[in-house]
Amino acid sequence: MLGQQDVGHRIVVRRIVGIREGRPLFSDALGELVELSESHLTLATAQGPLRVPRDEVHRAKRVPPTRRPTAAAVTELELAADEAWPAQTRGRLGGWLLRAADGWTGRANSALPVGDPDRPLPAAVDAVESWYRDRGLTPMVNTPLPLAAPVGAELDARGWATRPPVLVQTAPLPLPSAPPRAGAAAVELATAPSDEWLSVAAGRKGGLPDAARHVLTAVDEVRFAHAYADGTLIGIGRGTVTGSGRWLGLSLIEVLPPARRQGLAARMIRALADWGVATGATRAFLQVEQSNTGAVALYQGLGFTTHHTYLTRAAPR
Q: What sequence ranges are listed for the domain N-acetyltransferase (predicted)?
């Protein structure tokens, strides 16, 4: 049977999906085990999250591991991503990072448990809870898998909620080129976001408090992509170079509805990638919810593959 030690690992589940002529019908599912409770288990599959009641599980076992990134590689990328999305308020718990930004985005308002918290795990989670509640925020933890699987098990025991799995994807630079398209919108890169850019970002993220502006701009190497058609902003994107200059981070790639499905998102990504290469970056990364199949397909077409996944966990109210 599966146990908490299997969380963060790839497993195959044979589940009972019906009965025919008195015999059970089975279906197999393959994915990363991201949640295991007394009542159900959740897999991150290629088609999205799959929640399976425990009483439907006929058999489950680990799949022999494929080549996975080392703990050091996951930590390196997570720290580069933290630099690329810097919370205004920061603290440390040993090697763990504590981050707050007036509640704007989960990434900037969650603990990142990489390294040793310098205390037993239950005491570390107690300290995380206190740090966030003292600031009027719901305690949250980003758990990179399988690196933070033990942390996830402790949070499971405390009844913390689990948000949808996020894929951390990477690609080598430069990205594959594409032929120019006639009449394509102009993409411009700027060192600061325009008011229109900020308005689009606010619409996507539910407002922009002062802490959000810090998250967006407090990076030494940052560019903001603006895509225009007939003088109207129709697309935005953001690129950063962090991790000792190695990593180009891509975020807030957004195309307004009338301009979608015309290749504009890929053009903005390529423009930011070209800037990253000129700056010295050798690899690109981005973070995308696994359930966002359209975006995952776009990034796959540009050469991105999944490096690791993470879950955002939130304490019970």
A: 187-317
